UniProtKB/TrEMBL annotation:
Family to which the UniProt record says this protein belongs: Belongs to the universal stress protein A family.
Gene3D superfamilies, alphabetized: HUPs
Chain ranges of the UspA domain: 2-138
InterPro entries from the UniProt entry: Rossmann-like_a/b/a_fold (IPR014729), UspA (IPR006016)
Secretion signal span: none
The protein's name in its UniProt record: UspA domain-containing protein
Protein source organism: Haloferax sulfurifontis
């Protein structure tokens, strides 16, 4: 089976990878770390590039972020597969979870006020409510 860990665009050590690695080791599963370039950012990059910014370009950039996070987080980056996706974040994460037949999905989250959640929604909340596999939410330590 597979443990899927989703990282955001910050190229720094991430507890999501650490927790994903712990789960993968405990269950003797493969760890796949994914970063999703959201549709809005993809379209902004496409507007900037005169020669065109393809989905493949976006996937390579997103995978590069995932690779950087893995290298910054674990001392065994060779044992972790990375992937980059482009699209709506929740849809892409849930789709990848299904494609990989993942046994767990590990995601990050931020503590927010009730008003903040009501006004802006939450990717973490949407994933928690929609996923067909157990989701491990790793909250910021702030």
């Amino acid at each position: 089976m597979t443990i899927l860990a989703a990282v955001d665009g910050e190229q720094k050590p991430d507890r999501v990878v650490t927790i994903g690695e712990d789960l993968a080791n405990a269950y003797d599963d493969q760890l796949v770390v994914v970063n999703v370039l959201n549709q809005k950012e993809f379209e902004e990059r496409d507007d900037v590039h005169q020669a065109g910014y393809t989905v493949e370009d976006g996937q390579k950039d997103a995978e590069s972020v995932a690779r950087s996070v893995v290298k910054a987080t674990t001392d065994r980056p060779g044992h972790v597969e990375t992937r980059g996706l482009v699209g709506e974040v929740v849809d892409e994460l849930l789709g990848e979870t299904e494609r990989l037949d993942a046994s767990y999905l590990v995601i990050g989250g931020r503590k927010r006020t009730a008003v903040g959640k009501a006004l802006f929604g939450s990717t973490t909340q949407s994933v928690l409510l929609s996923a067909d596999v157990p989701v491990v939410a790793v909250m910021d330590e702030k």
